[in-house]
Design goal:
alpha+beta; 44% helix
Length: 151
């Protein structure tokens, strides 16, 4: 028995099987859009059981309904980033920009260290002695860019 015969033997139940597979993949794969394709498969299954529709029309309906559901989801705002009251929560280095700290190791050849809370951070900036107060002006990766604070 070839694959086409197997699929054709299931008839309209193929859409229900596809919906179950897509819902299962939605649980396993991060994202949000497989659910809409699964819903489209269920809708086509309902239409196929209710009306006598050729398989070509069923595929076209599945595509059109999928596009409509995904479009409606985007319009309604599903899957968009939620505004946070703490937008820098996971951007640790960006939280330090504009703040002043004291060098715990001098900046030599452009690299030194500052103490922030209970941790020590690498900094880049002009050569400065240990104990100098510096202001963080930027962050590149895990390194902070600093400049000396003038009194």
């Amino acid at each position: 028995m070839d694959l086409w015969s197997l699929f054709s033997s299931f008839g309209d139940w193929n859409w229900v099987i596809a919906a179950i597979l897509l819902f299962s993949l939605e649980l396993l794969v991060p994202g949000f859009y497989l659910m809409f394709f699964a819903l489209a498969a269920l809708i086509v299954a309902f239409l196929a059981f209710t009306f006598d529709i050729s398989w070509q029309i069923q595929f076209i309906l599945a595509g059109v309904i999928s596009l409509m559901l995904v479009g409606a989801a985007r319009i309604m705002g599903f899957g968009q980033d939620i505004e946070s009251d703490k937008p820098l929560l996971n951007l640790r280095t960006k939280q330090y920009i504009g703040k002043s700290y004291v060098l715990v190791e001098p900046i030599e050849q452009g690299t030194g260290k500052i103490k922030v809370g209970d941790s020590v951070w690498l900094v880049n900036g002009p050569d400065l002695p240990k104990g100098q107060t510096v202001k963080v002006t930027d962050a590149r990766g895990t390194k902070l860019i600093v400049e000396p604070v003038t009194n």
